[in-house]
Structures are given as structure tokens and as C-alpha cells.
Amino acid sequence: MELINYVKDLNTNEELFPAIHKYAMEKRVPIIDSDALNVVKQYIAIKGAKNILEIGTAIGYSALHFASAAEGVHVTTIEKDEASHEIANQNIGASEYSENIKTILADAKEAELGDAQFDFLFIDASKGNNQLFFDKYKEHLTEGALIIVDNIFVRGLIADDNVENKNKRKLRDKVRAFNQAMKDSEYTTSFLNVGDGLLVIY
Question: Which segments does the entry list as coiled coil (predicted)?
Fold first, then answer.
């Protein structure tokens, strides 16, 4: 067994929402990897986060898991795809966490949240816009808030210096620039080799 798979197995817990997970696998809906998910949930619990903002709802899978991470957690999640938004609402509405999750149908690049404040931000939308999402939504964070960005490895693209496809190369370069900018910033950062890569920013 490879070491990375050994650690992945240790970091993966029993699935709380098997039907939604199965649907995502069958329909190829991009959701957070199981090992990375449980690391994020642990950060939520350790932080004692109560108000989470998620950029990228998809079908509501991660929002449900976040709401389940600790008592009294509330999640606000933004999704621009109407079909995904509707499925997410169905999944959330059928769960015990329906009162803990607020879904917003909007493009996260333009969404307005008024004076809402959050103590935890999870970014998992279009990877080329990580910097934009970070800059826009950090204004809604309380002092000492935690930010986690998923897919910072872009399924291995980040380490590929021989990308021929122009669009993929542009995406790689944008994610690389964001990762480096966060490393060089005033914030405390950790780059974790779990799932497709997690960036933790404090």
C-alpha cells in the first residue's frame, strides 16, 4: 500500500450522506474528496466555527457535512448553477440540517451579502477565481476567522510544467499565482497534501 493511500484511508470516516455521495459519483458531480472533507470538518470543530460561508454549493454535499461538524453551525452557501442549486435545496430540505443551511443562487463573483459576518470561509468554486473570491469575501470575516481553499493541486495540473492546452495552462498559472501570493502574504498559511490539496489561511 502506498503511504498516501494509507493516510487517505485513515483520514476518511464513514459517509453520513451516502445517497448524495453516490449520486455525485454516478453523475460525476465534483465534490470534495472524503479525506479532505474530514480534515475541514475537524478544523470547523477545533475553531468552534458557528457561521460558515461556502463559495460553491454544487449539490449541497459539503454544506451538509459542515453543518454536521458541530452543534449550532450555520452555513451560507453560494452557487451560480440553477440546476445544482435546485438539487442542493432538495438534498438540504430532506435533511435534519435544513434550518442550519441557507442557499443563495448567484454568481459568487457578484453576490452581495450586506453586513453578514462569518468566522469560517470555504472556497470551492472556479479555481481561476480563488484570488477574486478571497479578496471579495475576506471583508465579511470576523477577526481570527479561518479560510480553507480546496483543490489547490487542480488534480495534478499544478505541478505539470508541460501543459500543452492553453486554457489548462492559464488555469494552472492562476492557481500557482494565488498559492504563492498566499504563501508570501501577511497571513499564516498551511498547504496540506490531502484530497486534491487544501490551503488553510489564518
Answer: none
Task: Tell how strand 51-55 and strand 189-192 pair up.
Answer: unpaired
pLDDT in tens, 48-93: 999 999 999 999 999 999 999 999 999 999 999 999 999 999 999 9
Q: Residue 128 corresponds to which amino acid?
A: G
Q: Which residues contact 109 (CB under 8 A, 6 or more apart)?
A: 129, 132, 133, 136
Short-list 5, 41, 2, CA closest to 195 = 5
What total number of domains does the chain contain?
1
Supply the CATH number for residue 180's domain.
3.40.50.150
- Report the DSSP beta bridge partners of residue 191: 199
Round to whole Å and give the CA distance between 125 and 105.
13
Q: In terms of residue numbers, what domain contains 54?
A: 3-201
In one letter, which amino acid is 157?
A: L
Q: Which three cell numbers stand for residue 95?
A: 435533511
8-14, long-range: CB within 8 Å, 24+ apart, which pairs? Answer: 8/34, 8/35, 8/194, 11/35, 11/36, 11/38, 11/39, 11/194, 12/38, 13/38
* pLDDT of res. 7: 84
Q: What distance, in Å, lies between the first and last C-alpha atoms of the chain?
A: 34
Three-state secondary structure call for residue 53: strand
CA distances from 34 to 77, 166, 174 (A): 19, 31, 25
